[in-house]
UniProtKB/TrEMBL annotation:
Its cofactor is heme b. This is Dyp-type peroxidase family. GO terms for molecular function: heme binding; metal ion binding; peroxidase activity. PROSITE patterns: DYP_PEROXIDASE. One of its GO terms (cellular component) is cytosol. It holds the Pfam family DyP_N. Coiled coil: none annotated. Residues 14-144 form the DyP dimeric alpha+beta barrel domain. It comes from Streptosporangium canum. InterPro entries: Dimeric_a/b-barrel, DyP_N, Dyp_peroxidase.
Length: 444
């Protein structure tokens, strides 16, 4: 739909958690609630509408701090949203993540039968997320939100996960995280790749034109417009197993770091192989103006620099003409770490829970999150690698491999184990602020 003037986003009605990149460093918390009394649930919606931070509020007294609220399909039903409105939501959202487990590769030890209680159950109705640059400002944000649910006996807090930036400001496997963020037309938030054309707002916010020219939103308009879908996932990372695999399949320290870079597509510092193919460049990795400024198709179509099967190239093929148009499958991704870091050099698991809470934001859960998870992360057909899975987060079982293109002979890593186990998750709808007020004013 070229030639059209981008629609002005109604930022004061969009939750800031939809569009704003997370701060670095950060502290975060996720709190799940069950609605036991419909009237109290509606009162909760009225209260949180005054607490949630809008995308227009970029000058908060707490700085890069915000509170977001989302609801599961069971949560919307608990509030008494009319059936004719419920039926206008995306069918993946209506089914819920647990019902979609097989398509997502959440099987075996990652299956819903092994998830943390109450994740993936009808008990989860409301998700409150607070994010801040540090723990002091996070607690201030939670304190500000607490009156919204405090003293409502019909609202029960049933689960909480606290997250924090590790001292290294990396994710648990040791890589710099939170680098890639798409530019969204009309958002006012810059993307991290200056070579990427901003995406249509309708890819991430309901009620606006998307890359196909369509406008999607649940009905009535006051409920759907300026909302979005958010996929929350708790992922456990087997850090010791990852380190051992790198050590056992490399010839020494330098080769181990190169292998880690080839698997991820970036050196641990965040420097991309596309811009620093032969050695790490920590200065580049820390430079937000440069560390994501690259494409693939012109300079590296065969993956000799950045393997086609590596994690970041699977998750965002950028300008590659594979599996349809990559722009149709773009998401906003945010990861926040939980648990203590495994001390440097330790190769034996210490039994601690550690990993990432992930949030995937998009207006089309089927062709965004589910497509990427099933077709790009857990399959390799799109770039000619058969059934090969993502070497980092794929649902590997020890039978698969990972190929590194190189001359004269390619390098192949065999017997990839599962490094990441799903602990649970939810499909949620994150309403606009007007929608929160509408939900609060519902009548039976």
């Amino acid at each position: 739909m070229t030639g059209q003037t981008p629609a002005a986003l109604e930022l004061d009605d969009i939750q800031r958690g939809v569009l704003s990149p997370r701060p670095t460093p950060y502290a975060a918390t996720y709190i799940l609630f069950r609605i036991d009394d419909r009237a109290h649930g509606r009162e909760l919606m009225r209260r949180v509408s005054a607490v949630v931070t809008s995308a227009a509020d970029t000058t908060s007294p707490l700085g890069e701090t915000w509170v977001s609220v989302a609801l599961t399909f069971h949560g919307l039903k608990a509030l008494g949203v009319p059936r004719e409105a419920l039926e206008t939501f995306a069918w993946e959202f209506r089914q819920g993540m647990a019902a979609r487990a097989a398509a997502l590769g959440d099987v075996g030890e990652s299956g819903p039968e092994n998830w943390e209680t109450p994740l993936g159950t009808p008990e989860v109705h409301v998700v409150l997320v607070a994010l801040a640059p540090d723990s002091a400002r996070l607690e201030a944000a939670v304190d500000r939100a607490r009156p919204a649910y405090h003293a409502l006996p019909g609202i029960t807090a049933i689960w909480r996960q606290d997250c924090h930036a590790l001292p290294t400001e990396t994710e648990p496997f040791g890589y710099r995280d939170g680098i890639s963020h798409p530019a969204v037309e009309g958002s006012g938030f810059a993307g991290s790749n200056p070579l990427e054309t901003p995406l249509k707002a309708g890819e991430f916010v309901l009620g606006y034109r998307d890359e196909l020219g369509g406008v999607q939103a649940p009905r009535p308009e006051v409920l759907g417009r300026n909302g979005t879908y958010v996929v929350f996932r708790k992922l456990h990372q087997r850090v010791a197993a990852f380190r051992r695999y790198l050590r056992d399949n490399s010839t020494g320290g330098e080769d181990e770091e190169l292998l880690a870079a080839k698997i991820m597509g970036r050196w641990r510092s965040g420097a991309p192989l596309a811009l620093s193919p032969s050695r790490d460049d920590p200065g580049l990795g820390a430079d937000r103006g440069r560390n994501n400024a690259f494409l693939y198709e012109q300079d590296d179509p065969m993956g000799f620099t950045t393997p086609g099967g590596c994690h970041i190239r699977r998750g965002n093929p950028r300008d590659a003409a594979v599996a349809g148009v990559p722009r149709l499958h773009r998401m906003i991704r945010r990861g926040t770490a939980y648990g203590p870091p495994l001390p440097e050099g330790v190769l034996r698991d210490d039994g601690a829970e550690r990993g990432l809470m992930f949030a995937f934001v998009g207006a089309h859960p089927g062709r965004q999150f589910e497509f990427v998870q099933s077709e790009w992360m857990n399959d390799g057909v799109f770039f000619g690698a058969g059934d090969a899975r993502d070497p980092v987060i794929g649902s590997n079982d020890g039978s698969g491999d990972f190929t590194i293109p190189q001359r004269p002979l390619r390098r192949r890593l065999r017997a990839l184990p599962r490094f990441v186990v799903t602990r649970g998750g939810e499909y949620c709808f994150m309403p606009g602020l007007n929608a929160l007020r509408w939900l609060g004013d519902l009548k039976d």
